[in-house]
Amino acid sequence: MALTAKQKRFVDEYLIDLNATKAYKVAYPNVKNDETAAAAAARLLKNVKVKAYLDERIKARQERTEITQDMVLQKWYDIATADPNEIIHLRRVCCRHCFGIGHQYQWRDPEEYQQAVKAAYDIAKEKDTEPVIPSDAGGYGFDRLLKPHPKCPYCRGEGHPELHIEDTRNLSPKARQLFAGIKQTQAGIEIKFRDQDKALENIAKHLGMFIEKVEHSGAIGSEVNIVIGSEEYGD
Questions:
Q1: Which of 55, 71, 92, 185 gives a 20 to 30 Å CA spacing to 137?
Q2: Which of 163, 197, 217 is the last residue of a domain?
Q3: 36-61 pLDDT per residue, tens
């Protein structure tokens, strides 16, 4: 017995986004209830002839597009196992006293020190007072990216927290799969990540690790967005 027109329509709709409930409601428009449609769709997907037709359609599409299940599974795996720290991470950087001589205030270079001296004179002139000249006894060479000095008496080895966003051109192949985009908003910078939990769930479904009770849904493009206030990022 051949498939009915509605069964074929169901398969055609299902292949669009793998949403069985939606596909069933399109093929059988008299069914309005989602729960009823989901249960009926689940039974239909187990029908031998429907399954055979579905497999045939999937195979034909793979041959046309040259996209295999292994390729899709690998993409999901890369997303699920990528390290978000490659894209954005919180790091603790040293304070100005960590590596200064005698743990005194350290300057980047003589130019920065001279700018501070000039600013002291400008403030004194404006207030008509004696200038308070900063000391350069701590020396030069401050590098904020160094790890905090564990015995620094000022920060006590804690340094300062700093949110760092990596140059996306330098991301590893896996991190590039995880990264879904970035944009400037009124609240700051919004970084978009692919949904790693969803990718892992898709892998588990593909490998038959658990029985899907409702339907196939979700896609690689699912995103998780993180908004970072503009004053909290940057070097």
A1: 92
A2: 163
A3: 999 999 999 999 999 998 888 888 87
pLDDT in tens, 135-182: 999 999 999 999 999 999 999 999 999 999 999 999 999 999 999 998
**First-to-last CA distance in the chain?**
69
CATH of residue 55: 1.10.10.1400
In angstroms, the CA 205 to CA 74 distance is 14
Q: What is the dihedral of CA 113, 118, 124, 126, to 10 degrees?
A: -140
Q: How far apart are CA 199 and CA 218, in angstroms?
A: 9
Amino acid at 199: A
Q: Are residues 177 and 221 in the same domain?
A: yes
Residues 121 and 13 both lie in one domain? no
Which residue range forms the structural domain that includes residue 22? 1-66
**114 and 174 both lie in a single domain:** no
Phi/psi region, residue 100 (left: phi>0; alpha: psi -120 to 50; beta: rest), is beta
